[in-house]
Design brief:
alpha+beta, OB fold (Dihydrolipoamide Acetyltransferase, E2P), DNA polymerase, domain 1, Helicase, Ruva Protein, domain 3, 3 domains, 5-stranded mixed beta barrel, 10 helices, DNA damage, cytoplasm, DNA repair, DNA-binding, DNA_helicase_Holl-junc_RuvA_I
Length: about 230
């Protein structure tokens, strides 16, 4: 299983890129948001990947964070959601936006993605809501964003085991936000709040203050979770 690619961007197309790794070109399909974040042709590039194998097709999908990759895997497991729809959702909302929409049960936000109808959006939220806390916590466990252009000259292919031994560079803002979110979820869990309630409160708090640290997120989430009236 190919878990990550590091090489040079050989060319861009409408929905995919080719990454040259040691003279071998890999076609990698990405969301619009990820495509826009990749460097220019000829420059170093690094992406997490997921290989989908079917009887008549093999496709690599590329992501800039493990959170994005995990949401793609989960979205693909929902009935009626294929790779095209999953990438459309991730492209429209981004991984943090997907986490927030799922945690809050906001199917209208999911429906805003191209090709997603109301029934599919509702099914996605219903099927995945219990998964949101674990994915949101992943961002604080090495699942932050890669720097897509931070590839060394001796580009290589890493499998999933190599990923664990050699963590990728992480953008400082994404690392800070992801770690704060994960710490807040852990603290709320220790206080006895259920995973779904905690995830929804933290998602709301982070949406209102994206740069907040863990302590600020916890305070804001506790206010949201406090009994009303």
């Amino acid at each position: 299983m190919i878990g990550r690619l590091r090489g040079r961007l050989a060319y861009r197309a409408g929905d995919h890129v080719m990454i040259d790794v040691g003279g071998v070109g890999y076609l990698v399909y990405c969301s619009d948001r990820t495509l826009a974040a990749l460097p220019r042709v000829g420059e170093p590039v690094s992406v997490y990947t997921d290989l989908v194998v079917r009887e008549d097709l093999m496709q690599l999908f590329g992501f800039l964070s493990l959170v994005e990759k995990e949401w793609h895997r989960l979205l693909m497991g929902v009935q009626g959601v294929g790779a095209k729809v999953s990438l459309a959702i991730l492209g429209a909302l981004g991984p943090d936006g997907v986490s927030r929409a799922i945690a809050l049960g906001d199917w209208s936000a999911v429906k805003a993605a191209k090709g997603v109808g109301p029934k599919t959006a509702q099914r996605i939220v219903l099927d995945l809501k219990d998964k949101a806390p674990a994915v949101m916590a992943l961002s604080g466990e090495g699942g932050g964003a890669l720097d897509p252009a931070a590839a060394p000259e001796d580009a290589d292919v890493l499998d999933d085991a190599d990923d664990a031994a050699a963590p990728a560079p992480v953008a400082s803002a994404a690392r800070h936000g992801g770690a704060a979110q994960a710490d807040a979820l852990s603290a709320l869990g220790n206080l006895g709040y259920g995973p779904s309630d905690a995830a929804a409160a933290v998602a709301t708090a982070r949406a209102e203050a994206p740069d907040a640290d863990a302590a600020a997120l916890i305070r804001a989430a506790l206010k949201l979770l406090a009994p009303k009236g």
